[in-house]
Design brief:
Layout: E1 2-8, H1 16-29, E2 36-43, H2 45-56, E3 64-68, E4 87-94, H3 96-106, H4 110-125, H5 133-156
Helix pairs in contact: 1-4, 3-4, 4-5
């Protein structure tokens, strides 16, 4: 799975390698074809506010926005469907400054908030939404399971990023752990 992280936020305390590993973990746990590509961009508040107004019609910066590249994306697509099986799943845009404030309000770490927001954004790309109460319950349940499984994988890796992280290998060529759905 190709995950590209670009930090254009000016914030230097983002662990981009761990964020990449988390994104791969989530995509793998959700059984997204390993040839899919994902872009994660971290932006400053002004850029996020501009995107928020432009695409959501709402003022001020938000925490996360997701932009799907292919409305007809099917997470179960296979190589036999197309001559070129690679596809860009989409973009997840995060605002570290908003995430930091939300983490303080929620009483958990800044990194935890970024991981929650990245997972949330990926789920949106996979078609999950929270406009209706039933949808919200389902999305939050999956999001919480994914993050709990990530925590277990990180703990099993001794607090480091789990196997299969940012570069797709842990030195032994083993894939990263998968979360139960």
């Amino acid at each position: 799975m190709a995950v590209f992280v670009a930090n254009e936020s000016g914030v230097n305390d983002v662990d981009e390698i761990r964020l990449t590993a988390l994104a791969r973990f989530v995509l793998d746990a959700m059984k997204v074809n390993p040839l899919a590509e994902l872009s994660v961009m971290l932006v400053e508040e002004k850029a996020m506010a501009d995107l928020h107004v432009r695409y959501m019609g709402e003022e001020g910066p938000t925490d996360v926005l997701s932009f799907a590249q292919d409305d007809a994306f099917d997470a179960s697509w296979s190589e036999s469907v197309d001559d070129d099986p690679t596809t860009l799943l989409g973009d997840v845009v995060l605002c570290p400054d908003v995430a930091r404030r939300q983490a303080e309000q929620a009483g958990h770490s800044y990194e935890r908030e970024l991981h929650l927001l990245c997972t949330h954004g990926i789920l949106h790309l996979l078609g999950y939404d929270h406009a209706e109460p039933d949808e919200e319950r389902e999305m939050w349940k999956i999001q919480n399971k994914l993050l709990a499984s990530w925590d277990v994988a990180v703990k099993a890796a001794g607090g480091k990023r789990p196997a299969g992280g940012a570069d797709g290998a842990d030195g032994a060529g083993e894939p990263g752990p998968t979360a139960a759905r």
